[in-house]
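A note from the maintainers: we've had questions about how concatenated examples are separated. There is no special marker in the raw files; a new sequence line simply starts the next protein. For clarity in this README we add a label.
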Amino acid sequence: MRGSIKITRRGFLKAVGATTLGLGISGLAGYGYVFYVEPRWLSIERIDVPIYGLPEAFDGFKIVCMSDFHLHPYTQIDFIERAISTANELAPDVVCLLGDYVFEGADSIYELAPVLAELESTYGVFAVLGNHDLWTDAAIVRSGLEAVGIRVLVNESVPLRLGGDNLILAGLDDGWSGEPDLSLALEGSPQGSPVIMMLHEPDFADHYARDGRVRLQLSGHTHGGQVRIPGLGGPFRPEYGRKYDDGLVEIEGMWLYTTRGIGVIGPPARFNCRPEITEITLQYMP
């Protein structure tokens, strides 16, 4: 069932105004910064994650994550093109796209997908769908991605093989409006291999951490709140993104990383919450 994010424009703008004024960024300068500067000020977050049971051959394996492109009406294709170019400079081993490619219309995928097809990596580009993809038209979004060679994982997994060892990359259906199924995703996968799981919404991590097979969950969805008040965090967080809204946390032996994403939804402001490309380097942990 389609949900709703209960954030009013007036409440959002009041929070932005109070925050910017409190930090001495006022008037037109503050408005220009939160609506026109920071939303296009791309950040690269570099994270090292120790993985228990990781085969030594995968020590230093580099995953680049991108999420929440939300092409149109606020996020434009030129900014995404710049993000793709930056991601390629990181020379990733694999690229994980974590959902919400569109915002108001699924047809935006036909403009976005050829740009995403420019992503380069050793083992390929893999994607999962997000709630906005399902709320518009999941079939159109999926076909648009697959038409340019991006594999969409919906309760599926692929083994990444290196030196005779395996690392399993699993992708689940959207947690809010889909039917995620980890057991189905891992059906037929090599037993005992560590699992990296892609799931759009982060807050389901409490459930999957108890499974024991997943070593790292990669999520987006929250945009980091888009506005983060120093010392308080993001006052506006979507359903299933209220607990784990930004960054790396460990939950019962499983790591979760939530990226702030690339694009925005309305009101299209960012403050103390720059758009993000994430570079995760896996570390061998015996």
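[label: protein 2]
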Amino acid sequence: MKKHLLFIISFLIFFNTGLAQNITIIQNQPGISIRGLSVVNDNVIWVSGSNGVIGKSINGGKTWKWSVIKGFSKNDFRDIEAFDDMNAVAMAIGEPAYILRTGDGGDNWKIVFKDSTKGMFLDAMEFWNDESGIVIGDPIDKRFFIARTFDGGRTWSVIPKTNLPSAADGEACFASSGTNVRKLNKKEAIFISGGMSSNLFIRDNKINIPIQQGSESKGANSIAIKNKNTFIVVGGDYKEIHSTEKNCAITFDGGNSWQNAEVPPNGYRSCIEYIRKNEWITCGINGVDYTKDDGKTFYSISKEGFHVCRKAKNGKAIFLAGSDGRIGKLE
């Protein structure tokens, strides 16, 4: 009897601990879709979205400053990378595609990149530090677009076409959360694709991912990295938001082999973020899921929909953002 009671107590402790996470909605801006989110630290958060909207908080999300970038009220800013409370770079998908930079907290923005090439569509940015960054875009003439910056986004250099990775017919990237390109180490970045073919691009290798693919609405949307060997990719079919079929793939050997989650996230997922130890968070249109075993099993922690989730670069806070200007915080 005593052993049985101890088992029940232990199970309840584990169960309650596993479900301790919850999402608190801290802000709403109806009519705005937010896909760009950059959390500098536990206090400084930047978001970007449709209709040229930029939001910023310097007190951990308690209050927000909202603005529309002058001259860009019709542009959709799908990614933003912030360095502090004054400096940030925002990416508008196109066409034409723009990258803007502010150095005065968002009061004024300068065009630092513009490309009107037919078919130009930027998908995501990633920065290694305050100076070195990368932006990727959909294929043009069957080559993915890539540009680099080495001065904090003030200037950008386009990689020559002959050095760009090739794309299959119908293969592209999803500009869903700014997280389909990630830094692998201090010098390298890797990215993922979707559509007719879904692949991981790492160095000179193109590795197919066991995730839904074969149509324009399917494929890998987001990748997160724990270390040089362990990555998790999420996606699925954004037209079938409740489908759990092959919506998550995990590698423990740097992409050489993959496995699907035993208990997958509860539907299509547009973003995943590594948190600590074996813990990760992922979100999509129909909710948020959490794993404590490196992606083997996921459990739902919220039915609220979000496009993007990010952990503070220098801190522990985790924020989420999505449709109707919804911003949440993981408690």
